[in-house]
Automatic annotation (TrEMBL):
PROSITE patterns, per the entry: FN3
GO molecular function: transcription coactivator activity
InterPro entries, alphabetized: FN3_dom, FN3_sf, HCF1/2, Ig-like_fold, Kelch-typ_b-propeller, Kelch_HCF
This protein's record includes keyword Nucleus: yes
Main subcellular location of this protein, as a coarse class: nucleus
Pfam families on file: Kelch_HCF
Subcellular location as annotated: Nucleus
Location of the region described as Disordered in the Swiss-Prot/TrEMBL record: 517-551
GO cellular component: histone methyltransferase complex
Domain of life the protein comes from: Eukaryota
Source species: Cnemophilus loriae
The name this protein goes by in its record: HCFC2 factor
Amino acid sequence: TNQWFLPAVRGDIPPGCAAHGFVCDGTRILVFGGMVEYGRYSNDLYELQASRWLWKKVKPQAPSNGSPPCPRLGHSFSLYGNKCYLFGGLANESEDSNNNVPRYLNDFYELELQHGSGVVGWSIPVTKGILPSPRESHTAIVYCRKDVGSPKMYIFGGMCGCRLNDLWELDIETMTWSRPETKGTVPLPRSLHTANVIGNKMYVFGGWVPQSAGGEISAPDGEWKCTGSFSYLNLDTAEWIGLISDCQEDKSNLLPGPRAGHCAVAVGTRLYIWSGRDGYRKAWNNQVCCKDLWYLDTERPLAPSQVQLIRATTNSFQLKWDEVPTVEGYLLQLHADSPVPPVAGIPGAGVPETSVLSSQGGCSLHQSPQSLPSVPYPEMKVDHPSQTNNLIPNKVQVSLSSNSKAEGKEKVAAPENKVTQETMKNHTDATGFKESNAPSLLPVCTSSAQTSANVGELHDLDKQTVNPDASVSSTVSSTRTMVTQQAVKTESSSTNGAVVKDETSLTTFNSKSEAAETAYVMPSTRASTGQTNDSHSSRAPQRPPAPVKSRDRRWYDVGIFKNNSAVVSQFYLLPEETLNINSKTEGADVPDYRLLKKQDLFPGTVYRFRVAAINGCGVGPFSKISEFKTCIPGFPGAPSTVKITKSVDCIHLSWEPPASASGNILEYSAYLAIRSTQLQENPSQLVFMRIYCGLKTSCIVTAAQLSNAHVDYTSRPAIVFRISAKNERGYGPATQVRWLQDMKTSGSK
C-alpha cells in the first residue's frame, strides 16, 4: 500500500538511539547498542516480537573467555542461522559523556539465539588470520555460495579517523580472516553507507566519501561529502561493477540523491532505500534529511504458479495464481483451443525508442511515493475499485531476439503514465511489453470426460466447512469408478483452514514449461488516455468462421492485472498483419490495445492460460500452461459447502446441492484420491476411486477406505476428495476438497 503506520508497541520499549545494530529474524527484531545521547552509548540488547509489537529487554550470558561487548555505536550486527555476529564500532573512553574520547574497536563477538524468542549468550570466537583494523560505520554482510556451502562474512569500508574502502572476509566455519583480491574499480572510501546481498551480489550505496579530487583518502580533518554512487561486488567472482558513478549528473531527479546514514533492505530481488541525510562537513547547517523512498529491481521476476480456476461459467472464468513478491502487475494471456481468426484493418502504433530497461541482468531504479493512491507506471500503483483490476497496455513491441546485450550505462526514466478507473471503464495509458523467444504454439489433444474442479482446503478439525462458489466445466462419466486428473492447488493462509471460500485449485489437462520465454516492459515516453469498455457483451458471441492453420494459432492478451486474480470473459484479437509472429522483426509495429477488437469466450470451449509477472526490469518468464473449459449450458453446477466431521473410525462427508441444478439432480458421486503405481510414475497425476453414488448429500468414508488414500504432499499434506452432481444431461463439474493432515497423521497413512 506504500502507507506508513505507527504500531502501538508495548513492553520494555527501548530509548531512542542512533547508529545501533539491527537484525531481523523471522518475525522478531533484535537491536543492540547505539548512541542514546551525545557521548553516551549503550550495550543493551532488545527484542521486538513484531507479530505482537512487544518489546523485551534481554540479558545474554557473558562470554566464558572475556567481558561482554562494551557500549558502542557504528558497529555491524549480522545474522546467519541462529547466531548474530558483532564487529567493531566506536566507544567513548571517557566516563564523562560530555567529554567524548573516541576509541575505534575491532573486537568480534558471537551471540547465540534461542528459537523464536530469547538469546543464549555472548561468546568470543577464536579467529585465525589478520583481524581487520578498528573502525566504525562500516558494513558487514553474510553470504553462502550455493555450490560451496561455506558461509562468509564480508566487511567493507568504515571510518577510523579517515574513510576506508578495504574489503575483509571471514570464513565462519573456520573462523579465518583474509583480504580477498578483487577485480574492477573499487568504490571510493566511505562510511555510513549500506551494503545488502541479493543473489550473489553485494550492493553498496551512498555514504560519506572524501571531497578531495581523485578520491584520495583524506586526512582526519579533510573535507568529505555525501555520495549517491552505487556499485555491486559479485561475491562469486570478486569483481566490482559500478552502476552509478559519484560524478554522474541527474538533472531530472531520476536517481536517489546523495546521502549517508540511510537504511536499505532487500525484499526478494528488490532493494529498498529510505531516508538518510545529505551535506558537507564544512556546512553542517546546510545538511538536509531525506524523506524519499526508492527501490531497485535487480532482475526480472520469477514465473508465477500455474493459473488456477476459482469458477467457470458458460462464457467466463474466474482465475487466480500465487502472488510473486515485489511485482507491479501480471500479464495474463490465453490460447484458444478453437483457432481465432485475424482482424483486418486495425492500424498499429509504434513504440518510442526510449527504454528504462537493459535487457539482461539490468537493474531499474524507481522512486516510491508514500501514501499516494495513484503513481507513475514504474510502480503501476493503480487507483481502482475492488470489482476489477485490469490494466491494458496500448502499445506493444515484440522482439525475437533472446540475447540482447545490456547497455553499459544505466537508463532510467519515469514516464507519467497514470491509471485510474471509473465504474466499468478503464482510462488506460501508453505502456507496453517487449517479448523475446516467441512461444512455439502446437495443437494440444484433449481427451473426453475431463473435469475442471473447484477446490477448497480443510484442516484436520472435528468439524469443518468449505464453501467453494463453483460452477465449472465439462462432465464426468457416470459409469466410471476411477478418474485420473492432474491437479495443482493453492492454500489459504488467512483462513487457517477452518472455513475456505474460493480457495481453489485447478484441474489441468496439460502442463508445459514456459520458463525459457522471457519478455520485457518498455514504458512509453508519453501518456495517452483512452477508454475501453469492460462490461460483458449482452449479445451471443458468434463462432469464428473459417478455421486457421495450427501454426497460426496465437497467444492473445487478456490484459495486465494489478492483483493475482482476474475475471476473464473476453480477450484481445490481433490484426491480420501481426498474426504471423515469425515474420516480425525487431522494433516492428504492433496494434494499439485501445483500437483492438475483443473476442468473447464461447461455451464448452477449452482455453489455455499462462501468466507472467512484471517489475521494473520487465516481464518475467511465463508460468506453466493451465487448461480449462467453459461450461456447457444445461449441466448442474458443483456442490458447495462441503463439511467433514471426524469420528473414531470414519469421517462423515456432507455437502449442499449446487446453486444451479439446471434440472433435477439424479445422483451425486464422491471420489477419493488413492495410492497407485501410476502415482509413483507421475506424482502430479492423481488417481480417484468413487466411494459413494446416490441421492443423499452426505456419505461415510470408512477407515478401510481412508487407509488406501493418497496423501498429497505438493504443499501441506492433504487427503483429496471430489464431489459432483448429475442431472438429466449428465455430470457437472466436481468440487475438490483437500483435507489437511498433520505430519503425524499423514505419516501413518
